[in-house]
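User: Here's a chain of 104 residues. Predict its fold as tokens.
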Amino acid sequence: TTARAEEIAVIANPPTFFTIVIFAAACACIAVCFQVLMLVKGGQLSRSWQLFLAGFAVLAISQLGLILHNFGVIAIPNWLNPTLMVVMAGVFFYGLFETKRILS
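Assistant: Prediction complete.
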């Protein structure tokens, strides 16, 4: 029963709860980006939406890794999550740059 209590404590911990919420939001954004990508397939904005989709995928992967780490399922290095966040920000920035270039 102590293991079950620890699981509930991990879920109820505010940072872990927010990580779960961010993971769910990232998954929802992936679904929306995929739908928009199917609408603009082959269009000029297709590349931008692919980059946004990749950025949300990196965000979801980083949050999933953090959730699994908090539950003790896997051990990840401390530098991995911030590195994935930097990659995500870079992909989003490049997507915005591509969108600006196309719309100019």
